[in-house]
Amino acid sequence: MSVLNGKKILLGVSGGIAAYKTASLVRLFIKAGAHVQVIMTPASKDFVTPLTLSTLSKNPVHSSFFNQDDEDAVWNNHVDLALWADLMLIAPATSNTLSKMTTGNSDNLLVATYLSAKCPVYFAPAMDLDMYKHPSVLASFNALKSFGNIMIPAESGELASGLSGEGRMAEPENIIAFLEADLESKLPLKGKKILITAGPTYEAIDPVRFIGNHSSGKMGFDLANEAANLGAQVILVAGPTHYKAKNNLVEVIGVVSAQEMYDVCHEYFKDVDVAIAAAAVADYRPKVVATQKIKKAADEFSIELEKTKDILASLGAIKKNQFLIGFALETENEIENAKLKIQKKNLDLIVLNSLQDEGAGFKKETNKVTFIDQDFKIEPMELKSKESVAVDILNKVVSHFAKL
């Protein structure tokens, strides 16, 4: 999966012959899973039509501060466009547009939006070779880079003038590769390996029946997807669940029983930097599993249970430098019980869920958690979607490594 997947990309197109390449560029962004909006300078419409880019991006194309053909003269809000974007790319970036970006001459919608952008801004110059080397253009390059903007260098080859040399806008495939490589290098969990458990475990009674719980596994899968989006190598050990990993960089290992989950976790734990135990593992299992289906006969039936191995405690007992996070689902004395688990299981952080909180617990789209760290610092959070809770948890991981 491309790191561009899900990203909101604002593409600025200025008036140069290389503008024709933006059709392919938009198509590649969409193929990578990005959401694209396009802003064109008036001059760029001489080289590629707004209809083409609108069709490919599946969004209206903006080129002026208001729509002149609209009787109500609706304003195209450059601030809203800038705040919408996760990143802005100006391609092609002509010498005229580069100069306006440098000096703040916002006489068109593209430059006004650029000046309002708070996201990373990339620019891909395109001009003839003498222009590309001119001191004024070089000064624009240096100024924009000093602003924190990122230049995608032009390539060498045949130019529109008939000359051959440096100045061609990078090919769309190379722009995509540049963006992906740059974004990946800045991911906060790049190079980290994370083990996550998810879902319930099923403990067999006989070949047909089992003891289980209501965990859906959603929290663990959301954690795995977010960790992968942040650049981590993720191993997700999942009990029976219908959820699938959205990020194909997540390695999913399916298990059924607590013992199977225990074995897989111990196989990988020594090599990971972080372990997050989000699974709802059965505390007990039948002591004897019937080899044939148990027939309904007596009015009463009892099953002798034995304890399963405590996966989280066993990992805490052997951890070295791993950052270990556990979950606690409580119904009473929540804070006190969570603190005891931190000590007993040698955790760095515990994520406390209370079934007393409306909107939290199993089979819900939302969760309300409280973070408690090993120093017993308590941080209650608001009710949020489980995806947002996953972001909060991974932010704790990022903060941990930032302090090292």
Structure description:
- This is Coenzyme A biosynthesis bifunctional protein CoaBC.
- It catalyses: N-[(R)-4-phosphopantothenoyl]-L-cysteine + H(+) = (R)-4'-phosphopantetheine + CO2; (R)-4'-phosphopantothenate + L-cysteine + CTP = N-[(R)-4-phosphopantothenoyl]-L-cysteine + CMP + diphosphate + H(+).
- In the C-terminal section; belongs to the PPC synthetase family.
- It comes from Flavobacterium collinsii.
- Residues 1-193 are annotated as: Phosphopantothenoylcysteine decarboxylase.
- The chain is α/β, with parallel strands linked by helices.
- Helix content is 33%, strand content 23%.
- The chain contains 13 helices and 22 strands.
- The chain has helices spanning 22-31, 50-57, 78-84, 95-103, 109-116, 129-133, 135-146, 172-185, 218-229, 258-268, 311-318, 334-345, 386-402; strands spanning 8-13, 35-40, 61-62, 87-93, 121-125, 150-151, 155-158, 164-168, 193-198, 203-204, 210-211, 233-238, 250-254, 274-277, 284-286, 305-307, 323-330, 349-354, 366-367, 369-373, 378-380, 384-385.
- An eight-stranded mixed β-sheet has the order 13-12-9-14-17-18-20-21, sandwiched between helices. A six-stranded parallel β-sheet has the order 3-2-1-4-5-6, with helices on both faces.
- A hairpin with a 4-residue loop joins strand 20 and strand 21 (378-380).
- The protein is elongated.
- The model has no long low-confidence stretch (mean pLDDT 93).
